[in-house]
Amino acid sequence: MAKIQTFPKSRLRNGELLDATKAIIQKMNSLDGVITPVKACYDVFSDNVDKYEYSIVKRSKNEFVLEVNQAKKENLNNRSTIFKIVDGYKKSRIMEKRLAAISLVAAISGFRKVRNLSLENLIQDTVQFIKLLESDLYKDKITTLGLTEQVASIKTINNECIELINKKLSVYVSRKRPVNTENARIWVNKSYDELVDELNAYTRYNGNDKYFELFTWWNAMIDEYRSKISDRYGSKAGGKLDNGVSNTPFPDSGGSSDRPEIE
Fold it and tell me: Which distant-in-sequence residues (6+ apart) come within 8 Å of 107 by Cβ?
């Protein structure tokens, strides 16, 4: 029966444990259906990894400034695309497009000068801009000028800006109420063990080969860390390498026995 081997987590440095746990989360999210049966344990583990990361990773203010400036630039550039296309159609020989453009020029004139706005205010202004473009009065004109996808793109970019601001606030709050790294590590280790126990138990009774790829990757990762620990602290410090021993193929159904059946 395949299973996840034991992990000498206590010998890992903080950065190594963080890298390992984040890699596990990324791998589980990349595979269909592996999270659902153990979602409760996974959610606790993922939340504790986030807290652990915030306790040891300090992001400078400059990093957020760069992200904010980039988000603002992308938002403004995509809004400018709308203005350029509308302005370009004002003198079109195609009457339908020219009339649509002339109508829109007056409507959107108040949304042009926004470069000095903060990202927060730009977000709110863009929300109103999108509402205008999607309103019953102007949505047909947007379609006529072929701007439907561009408006959808602006909406997506604006939502990403909102997520960035929320992320910034979340980090600020976490810094106001910092989590002790030692305690955060204890929570991560405990929730890791509970997740592994749940995965091993689930596959032991339900035998589903959709976990084979995950377990094979997981055991190989642990072996890599065993080798690192042994190189750092001396031979055998990381424990015996599993070398794929735990990657035994699953039975077709749960609860089966390896013993031959007596007929």
Answer: 132, 137, 138
